[in-house]
Amino acid sequence: MTQEKVLVIAVNQTKQEDHRFQSSLHELVSLCKTAGGTVEEIITQKRDRIHPATYMGEGKLHEIHEIIETKEIDIVVANNELSAGQIRNLSDVFGVRVLDRSQLILDIFAMRAQTKEGKLQVELAQLEYLLPRLHGQGTQLSRLGAGIGTRGPGETKLETDRRHIERRIYDIKRRLQLVVKQRSQYRKRRKENDVFQIAIVGYTNAGKSTLFNRLTKSSSLEEDQLFATLDPLTRRVKLPSDMICLITDTVGFIQDLPTALIAAFKSTLEEVAEADFLLHVVDASDSDLNQQQKTVQKLLEELNANHIPILTVYNKKDLVHGEDFIANQFPNVLISAYDENDLYHMMLQIESILKEEWGFYTTHVHPEEGDLLYRLKTETLITHREFNEEKEQYVVQGFVRYNHPLNRLVEEK
C-alpha cells in the first residue's frame, strides 16, 4: 500500500510552553506514521492566537501551497482542532484534504477497533465530531473510504443527510447502552466474587500490552505504534503470595485526546475507575516522560480514579542510558517487561504497597476447612502459614482488604 504524503502545520501560540508544543508536534508526526502516512514537511508559525478563519497567516498559507505543489502532498494535518470554516478555507487554498489532530486520532481508532463495541464507540465519536462541522467538509466527504482521515462511517453519504447522522448517533447510543449494561453486570459479578482488580494504565506506546502479555502469558497486540491496543482485555494473574487477581490492559492515553472519544469510550475507561489497583506504565527512555505522566494523571482525575493505590512502572530500562533517567513518581519500580526477574520484583512491590493499605490478620483454620484455606490463599496476601500439631489446626497470617468478606471471617476466628 503506497503511503500518503503528509504536510504537518502547527501554530505555536506565544502563551504555550515551547516544550509542550514540541512534544505535541513530535506526537503528531508519530500519529501520521501510525495512520499510514509519511511526513514530508513540518511548517510552524508563532502567533499570539490561532487565525479564526485560516488557522495561520496569509503569507504562511502561500508558502505551504508552494510546498504542496512541489512535493506533491496528499494531505495536510493541523496540530490543533479546526472549525468547519477553517477546514473549508484551508482546503480551498491548498487544493488537498485537510485534517486536524482529533480527526487523525479518530481515524487511527477506526483502524484499530476490533470488537463490535470498539467499532461502535469509534463510529459514535467520529459522527459526533463531524456533525457540527458538516457544512465545512465540502467535497471531502465524497472521498470517504480511501486514505487517512476517511476510515469509519464511509458509506453513509454524510454530506447529504444530517438527519441520517442524528438517527445513526441515536441508534449507536442505544446499542452501546446495552453493551454498557452487560459490562457493568460483568463488573458487578467480579465485585461480588471479590476478585482483586488491577488496571494497567499509561501513555500510548509505553509498553502496557507487552507487560500485560508477559504477566498473563497471552498475546494481545504488541506494536511500536500509537494506540496498538484499543479494546480492553482482562486475564487472571497470580501474585508471588499465590493471591489471584484480574488484570486489565486499557487503551493508551495521549495529550489532547478528543472529547468525543473520551465520551464514546466511557464504558471502556470505567474499567480504570472500577479497579482496586493501578499500574501506571511509563516509557523511561522517552525524553518527554514528565509531560506524559502529567497527561495520564490529569485523565485519571477526570475519570475519578486518582484515589486508587498506584505503582508507577518505569518500563524499557534497557533503553535508558546512564544518568538520563530520574524517577519523580513514588512508589515506583524500574523494569524491562522482557526481564522475568524485573517482573517478579514488580509483583513483590505490588504486594508491599497492599500490605500498607490492608489490615493484618492472624487466624486458626481446621484442616477440614479446605475451602476457607483456599480462599485465604487466593484472596488475601498470606505471609505465614504453619500447621500446629498440638492444636491440630493451621495458623495463618497475612493481609486482607478492609471491605473483603473474609475480613469478618478471620476476625471471628
- Give unreliable regions as ranges: 138-145
Count, helices = 13
C-alpha end-to-end distance:
68 Å
Helix content: 40-55%
| Tertiary shape | elongated
Mean pLDDT over all positions: 86
Topology, number of strands: 13
The radius of gyration computed from the alpha-carbon positions, rounded to a whole number of angstroms, is 25 Å
Strand content: 15-25%
Report a brief summary of the structure.
This protein is α/β, with parallel strands linked by helices and 413 residues long.
Task: Describe the structure in your own words.
This protein is α/β, with parallel strands linked by helices and 413 residues long. It has 13 helices and 13 strands. Strands 6-7-5-8-9-10 form a six-stranded mixed beta sheet, sandwiched between helices. Strands 2-1-3-4 form a four-stranded parallel beta sheet, sandwiched between helices. A three-stranded antiparallel beta sheet has the order 11-13-12. Helix 1 packs parallel to helix 4, helix 4 (101-112) runs antiparallel to helix 5 (116-130) and helix 5 crosses helix 6 (162-192). The radius of gyration is 25 Å and the shape is elongated.
Show the helix and strand layout.
Blueprint: E1 4-13, H1 18-34, E2 37-47, H2 58-71, E3 75-78, H3 84-94, E4 97-100, H4 101-112, H5 116-130, H6 162-192, E5 196-202, H7 208-216, E6 233-238, E7 244-249, H8 259-264, H9 266-273, E8 277-283, H10 289-302, E9 310-315, E10 332-334, H11 340-357, E11 359-365, H12 370-379, E12 381-388, E13 393-400, H13 405-412
Parallel strand pairs: 1-2, 1-3, 3-4, 5-7, 5-8, 8-9, 9-10
Antiparallel strand pairs: 6-7, 11-13, 12-13
